[in-house]
Each structure stands twice: as structure tokens, then as C-alpha cells.
Amino acid sequence: MKDKHLWFTLKSVSIVLLLLMAFSCGSEEKTTAPKVIKVRVMNVGGSSSNAAAGMSYNGTIESDVSINTSFQVSGTVLNVPVGIGDFVKKNQLIAQLDATVYTSQYEQQLAQERLAKENFERINSVFQKGSIAEIKMLEARAQYEQAQAAAKMTYQNVRHAKIYASMDGYISKKMMDAGDLAQPGQPVVELININTVKAVLPIPDSEINNIKKGDSATVRITALGDLEIIGTVDEISIQSDNGSPVYAAYVKLNNTDKKIKPGMTCTVNFKQTAVGTNNDVQTIIIPSESVAVMEDGKHFVYIVNGTSAERRYVDIGQLFDNGIAITKGLSKGDQLIVSGYHKLTQSTAVEVINDSK
User: Fold this and answer.
1) What's the CA gap between 315 and 294, in Å, rounded?
2) Which of 4, 187, 277, 344 has an alpha carbon within 20 to 30 A of 294's alpha carbon?
3) Which of these ranges, 195-204, 322-331, 332-341, has the smallest mean pLDDT?
């Protein structure tokens, strides 16, 4: 009876052990199931990538040509027959001095010239007859020529008492009016041409070498309903302003309809171009933190391949403020993993989420 009880006890223990082993195996199967990592992605070459691929600056519109007109002689302003905003044609009168003094001087010089001419003609006639020494004739001719020169010089004062437009354009500023005393070189009106205008951009010293003359840029003008127009870099300053680490770049724009006015604010975006390719190929720029490096120095990123992560080796290029350029290894349409990548290895199961989740 005792043996039978022992046998029954051992059998019960065996059953319990078998149940525990089965339960243990089931638990192990559950723990070894692949874990899915939730990630966020960026479409390479898509709108989000394009937004990060350019350099953007705020600027101000200026006229392409601006001239401060002034008199070359002094005097009292008689008339400025133009107003701010007026369109003037080339050679149109835009300002005039009271030239009474200069006109009187010119008339006096003309009288001196006529007298010197008559004297020279009389002495020359006598000289031709041999009745006077040649030196007398030469002196008379010199006096006549001096009188001519003096008359011409005085006439320039009369002519410079008027200002004519040197080009077609608009009056943007009017610094003087009738009755004011003008001095040589003192601005009277500012004349501008806005058939073409330029966006003036302050560029930090760390970025100025990224912009080259001839680069294309998109200029957006908010005041004109977010009008976008393509322009070209026309000038780049070689020296910073007032010793500050800021340079100026000038983007030239066509403005045949005259809608763009100097003083308007604008936003200018430059597209980056791929190193070693033609300028029509846009650089792939991605967040620099999404690029990892191997012990052997190779760089890699993770992209989504179906439902898993794929390690993709890449070649890196220039570093920008908004990311790093990828010159090889990524293509347009790749889904670059930009969040959750630090938990990944090759073929890790992933689930793409968006910001709404």
C-alpha cells in the first residue's frame, strides 16, 4: 500500500513538471516574438525634403538704377516741375535755377568776343597789306581766341542752370523746391528706373560663400499676394558692412509691369545644387542627426523597406545649417527614418507613424 502511494505521488509530480515545462515554453515563445519599432520618416525628394534643401533669407526691394540729380553751379532754385511718383522721359526738364546772373555774364562775354573779333579782322587786314608787324596780328588773334573761350565757358554756366533727366524713370525723392539755394553737387531729386529691381539680402559670413553670382533664386513678395518671381544673383559684396560679419547679396528681378516697388519686403530662397553635377540637379539634404557612422568610418542611414528597416550606406557632402548633403546612397522616393532610428538594426520590424498618432 505504501509503494502504491509513493508511485501515485511521483506520477503527480511528473504531471506538474510537464505542465510547468509547457507553460514555460509558451512564455518563451511570446518573449521571442519580434518587437515592432514605431518610426517617423521623411520622403527623400518630397516636399518636406525640398523645404529643407534651400537657404532662405529676408530682404528688401531696391531699384536697380538710382541717380541723385544735382546742379553743377550754385544759385536759387527757380522751378522743380516734377513731383514724387511722376514718370519722366529722358531729356525732360526736371529742375531749373534762376540763371539771370549767368545770362548777364554770358552776354558780356559775347560783347567782348565781338569786339576782339572786329579788332583782329582790322589788324589782320592791315597786316595782309604789309603795313604792320606780324606780332601785332598774332596778339590780336590771341585776344579774339581768349574771348571766344571765355564766352563758351560762361555759356556752360547758363546751360548747367537746368537739369534734364538722364534716363526714363520715376521721381522717388524730391529734396529741393522753388526758392531753395542750391550748391554744386547738392541732390535736388532722385530718379530711379524700376524696369528691373533687385532684392538686397543680408548674408552671414558663415554662409556668404555658399552663394555665387549667377545663382537662381525664388523671390516671394508678401505685399503682392505672395507673388513669386525667379531672379538671378547679380552682385555679391566683397566686404562686410560697417565691420559687422554680414555681407550683401543682390538678386536681380524683371519688373516690366512696374508692380514691384522699392521698399517692399521679400523672402528669397536659394536651391542647393549637387556637388559634381549640373546645376539643375537638387542636392539631397537630410537631418544630420539621422546619419550614423561605423567603426570603419562608413556612414549609414535607415530607410523603410516594406515593414522593416534597411541599413543604407551613404556618402556625405557639405554641411548646411538645415542638414547635411548626401551625394550618394539615397534616391528620390526613399523613406528616410528620422525618428526612432537609434533603436534599429538591419531588418528590424518597423511601423511608420505620423504626428497625429
Assistant:
1) 13
2) 277
3) 322-331
**pLDDT per residue over 4-38, tens digit each?**
454 444 455 455 455 555 555 554 444 555 688 88
pTM over 0.85: no
The grid coordinates of residue 350 equal 518597423
Candidate CATH numbers 2.60.120.10, 2.40.30.170, 3.30.450.20, 3.40.50.2000; the one for domain 55-64+194-271: 2.40.30.170
pLDDT tens-digit map of 236-265: 999 887 778 899 999 999 999 999 999 999
Distance CA 82, CA 192 (A): 14
**Cβ partners under 8 Å of residue 198, min gap 6:** 61, 62, 63, 64, 231, 234, 235, 250, 251, 252, 253
CATH architecture for the domain at 37-53+281-352: Beta Barrel (2.40)
